[in-house]
C-alpha cells in the first residue's frame, strides 16, 4: 500500500536522512559507510554498536564482501553480521537529542495509517515498522 507523506512527515524524513548522511563516510566505491564504534538503529534489533568492518567474517562468506559486525545494546553477546551493501535491512544513525525532540513535536501533526480492510491496515503497520523510518513509526502510534 503506497502512502504519501505530509509536509511534517517529509520534514522529519529529511531530518533523519541528514543524520544518517552526517555520520556516514564515502568509500572508494561510492557507497555510504558507517565507522567502527558508531551507534546505529538496525531493523527490528534496535540500537546496535558497530564493532568491526571486515571481509570474510566467517567460513563460506563470499570472498571480498565487506561486512558490518554489530552487537545489540539490549543483548551485548548477540553478534550480527550484515553486508555493507545489504539494502534489505535498514541501518540508520541514532537520532540526536534535538532530532528526537523534533520528532516528538511533530507526532501530533502526523496522520494515522489507513487501509480499506483490516489486512491492508495490518500490512501498512508491518511495512511502516520494518521501514525504520521515524515518520512511519509515528503514523503507527497515531
Q: Can you count the helices?
A: 4
In terms of DSSP E residues, the strand content is: 15-25%
Structural class: alpha+beta
The whole-number mean of residue pLDDT values reads 79
Largest sheet: 5 strands, antiparallel
Distance between the termini: 18 Å
Approximate helicity band:
25-40%
Number of strands: 7
Question: Would you identify the regions where 5 or more consecutive residues have pLDDT less than 50?
Answer: 15-31
Pattern of helices and strands: HEEEEEEEHHH
Radius of gyration: 17 Å
Q: How many domains, in number, for the residues?
A: 1
Question: In words, what does this structure look like?
Answer:
With 142 residues, the chain is α+β, with helices and mostly antiparallel strands. The chain has one domain (7-141). 35% of the residues lie in helices and 23% in strands. It has four helices and seven strands; from the N terminus they run αβββββββααα. The radius of gyration is 17 Å and the shape is globular.
